[in-house]
Amino acid sequence: MTEPVVIAMIEDDEGHAHLIEKNLRRAGVNNEIVPLRDGASAIAFLFGPNGTGLVKQSRHLLILLDLNLPDMSGIDILRRLKENEHLKISPVIVLTTTDDRVEIQRCYDLGCNVYITKPVDYEKFAHAIQQLGLFVSVIQVPKTI
Asked: pTM for the complete prediction?
């Protein structure tokens, strides 16, 4: 029996967070979504009270990560995730307004699995999130060893 994947949504814009969740649900994704509004709360949730990430070792996580957070860069969070022995296998989908090619390549070099640029236009953004929902509904997260 497989354990459900928990989606950690690191997004500071409440409107974007609502739109992401609404369209994930519309696409049939019923997984638990944990909204995290800033880098500090994301780090606390992902790495736990002792900061090792061991607390999340047995949980299946999918991380939706905005790069533009009010208190730290999503790049720093991505780097820490992929350097952590307990969290590095968790898939990371960068979902951000930054469309700079250098920044996109940097995210892939650090280990992000998918990079999606948020369109400014509401309809395009909603469509991109619906496509993300379809992707999430079929993704398999590997078991930790």
From this structure: 0.84
Q: Which amino acid is at 121?
A: D
pLDDT tens column, 64-110: 999 999 999 999 999 999 999 999 988 899 988 888 999 999 999 99
Residue 95's nearest CA partner among 84, 82, 106, 104 is 104
Query: Where along the chain do its domains lie?
Result: 31-138
CB-CB contact of 94 with 65 (8 Å) = yes
Q: Residues 6 or more apart from 41 whose CB is under 8 A from it?
A: none
**d(Cα 144, Cα 133) in Å, to the nearest integer?**
24
Q: Which CATH number fits domain 31-138: 3.40.50.2300, 3.10.50.40, 3.30.2350.10, 3.30.565.10?
A: 3.40.50.2300
